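Handoff note, outgoing to incoming analyst
You'll be picking up this chain. Sequence as last confirmed:
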Amino acid sequence: MTTFAKTIFCLVFFLAYTIQGVTGFAGNVFVMPVGTHLIGLSSSVAVLNALGVLACGFLAVLNLRAVDWRELGRICAIMLPCVALGIWLDTVIELRVLLRIYGAVIVGVALYNLLVRERRFLPAWGQVAVIAAAGVIQGMFVSGGALLVIYAVQRFRDKAAFKATLSMVWVVLNFAYALVSFGQGYFTSDVVMLVLICIPLAAAGTVLGNRIEKRVSQEAFLRVTYVLLLVIGVLLFATA
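Most recent structure output, in case you need it:
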């Protein structure tokens, strides 16, 4: 893991977690494609899980009163077993194929949210399916937020509850996955060093994003986020 790779990873990480400080999601979606190419899939997973617990935990604490605990329990109950399935799929599918799947998912989510002006409410089975799919993608790429937001925008009318509850979801899921990564030996000395470097970046990005969120409408910021996701998804699919 070169110094250049670590530096670029840290810069992208700070930008991504500033965005997550505003929206409550999408941080890992931005970091993961870059991290996979720079430091490898397993190292990226380990770093993002550890930092996800810290950064999302900090964001959740800042907005603890807004957490919808009932929704949190429902989401985690569905996603956790699906995360385990995603972790297993990582071991049996070739990396190039995984990255193309990832790129296609990101493009699909971005286009859906950019083109569908009126939110179409999914039936109960459709909501469960979206949460389950988010769990699988979380297990494969630590990036289930891109799908979970499709469910979340239907369930949360208050942006504070939206951000706080999703942040708490990532605390639970990232902590569980971090334990798995530790058991698999992914927390090498390089990974631990990168985690330590990124801790102040996560704190600074989260605080900055939290301040931006109070000045910018979430709808406007989400549209910018989806345009960026679309670009990332296309590039990821094309270069995999």
